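re: that chain from earlier
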Amino acid sequence: MIGKIARHTGKWLSVAAMAGGIWYLAKARNPVTPPQPLGKYKGPVKIDLSHGHHVGITLGSKIPSQREISEFQLGTGRRVITVNFFYPFDKDYPFPSETLDEIAGNGSYSIISWEPDPSGPRASSHNNVLKEINRGELDDYMTQWFTKAAEWKGELILRWAHEFNLPNRINPYAGMPKEFVDAYNRMCSIRDRAGATNVLLAWSPNFEPLDNIAGADGNSYRIEDFYPKDRCVNVKGLSGYNRGIRQKRTIHRKTPGGRGK
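^ sequence. v structure.
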């Protein structure tokens, strides 16, 4: 199925797997060197993966400080290339420039998981967020957010409404492909009008299911049904979770020698 999606949407630009709080953006042979600038946005992002394991971190709902990033680097001997943090999609939460400055101080890139989730620990106040977006009720909020993003000028990856192919009871914006695509494209258009070409939009489903996705309307969908306009997808990714071989929902697999990979 991944092959079908790759052919349908173009080349996969990055596949991000999150396991135990560590993001692996790529795997190569050499030790990590400091990250290279992404450059000005001119279409699909091109991240240089030639310098070794590109490691990033996420600390759940907590935004890592420079000190915590440094401690991780010292403890692992690895340079943190990306820092993912979760941020509410909510009118009370403006563009987090100070947080991005803190992360950039380490020479790292930020991935903002912008969550329109009214029920999670980082709760958004929007109970029908996709409908509100598509009715234009959040245009002013998104315009202000992306305008401030454009003023910040540094590059960042914005992972909006991730894992939208999970059941609706897990993510309240999930299971509604038409509403999701319309909302995603509207957000993208507002980004473009605000001139926030430094914000790279990430389309990021969970690694399963890719077929027979349960819709909130009782119908079954495929991952292609959730894909927005090509120009609105700068980074493609997957969320995967290594919980060991005893749990079903895991990317952990056993090799013939008995070790997981």
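The longest strand covers residues 80-88.
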